[in-house]
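G., the chain you wanted modeled:
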Amino acid sequence: MQWMKQIAKTTVLTLIAIAGLTIPTMAAEKDSPSIENPELSEGAELLNRGFQLLLEGLAKEVEPMADKWAEGWAELVERFGDLNAYYPPETLPNGDIIIRRRTPPEVEATPPSETEL
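Predicted structure as tokens:
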């Protein structure tokens, strides 16, 4: 379950890092003397900063949901084990949904008990 939380957090942080990669590019363009329209440059910088703030806010919102998703996924994996052991879900005419096993679960063989005579 812990690894699922780590994956979700890593994904969010990766999105923030990708957004952060555009900032140095914009800063380099801002310092460049070949900019013909300073208003366009300022607008692009504001859009970039707004996009960064949006992603940071989104990351803060998604993190609790990612934790809940990871917990739910871990519970599902714990309950069903290997999902390859099941056929895809089927919907019956009455609306019930069934999930069939491909092979029956293995039953532990118990030694025959001794009987007193």
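Residues 2-98 form one domain.

Shout if anything looks off.
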